[in-house]
Amino acid sequence: MDVGWNFSRKYGVHLTFGNAQVSGKETDSLRLIQSFVLGAELSFRRKDQAYGFTSIGIGSVSGEDNTLFVFGAGIKIPIRQHWLIRIELRDYHPEIGIPFVSFPKSQAAIQGTGGSRYLELRLGISRTLSGDR
Fold this sequence. Notes:
Elements: E1 2-6, E2 11-23, E3 30-44, E4 51-61, E5 68-80, E6 83-93, E7 98-102, E8 107-111, E9 118-127
Antiparallel strand pairs: 1-2, 2-3, 3-4, 4-5, 5-6, 6-9, 7-8
């Protein structure tokens, strides 16, 4: 379930609650995972066309002791007035790496030990409350 509010054509906030069944790496059993995410969203809109967006937030996942950082990217496709299809890929991390650039070789790297913990693909239908899609 997603709830969002776009306070301009580019910027918005979202609150997401979801359930998923996943299989563990060590066992063959299925496990139910619940996630709760609060984040900010930046849209790259074009008039009456599909448009991309990116999001960043913090989230809680059942079975995790710490809050996770959530990075997402996706596309919104208008299908009718007030209706659109939303496809999003989210990546959950236990910590944020610190980007740096070394000189004189100009090599960019990310420093930190946190790797991706969960990868989530979301597909949904959204209803807008205003005339803006």
